[in-house]
Every structure is written in structure tokens, then in C-alpha cells.
Amino acid sequence: MSREISFVLDAATAEKLSLFGGLLEKDASTMLREALQDYFAKEEKRLLEKKLAEKDPMTDLGFDEFWDGVDL
Q: Is residue 64 part of a domain?
């Protein structure tokens, strides 16, 4: 499914996109798609790490906490 989204780039970003396109021999759409894929992967990782950090701390016992008070 393709959906058209419009956005505006500032002049400096548009110039860099054009320059890198020539250097890398890629079109703007390809570079933007690759950049967004990288962005989404990083954000998914960040959100997952945030979710793991928000887990109930009472269920995440460390080694010493687990064995505290146990006589062997």
C-alpha cells in the first residue's frame, strides 16, 4: 500500500541530499528510505529498552538479593 506524504526540507538538508546522491549514485527516495529504516530500527530498540527498564523492580532480583539469608 502506497500513501503519499508531503514534507518540506530546509535548503541545507536538500543540498546535502543532492550532493550525497551524486557521490553515492543513489536517488533521494532511496536515501530517505534507508535513513528512515535506520531511524525506525533505532527507535524500536530504544522503546524496547525503555519498556524493559520499566519492569517491576521487585521481580528483578540480583544474585546477592536472591541468595540473601539462605544458609547452605
A: no
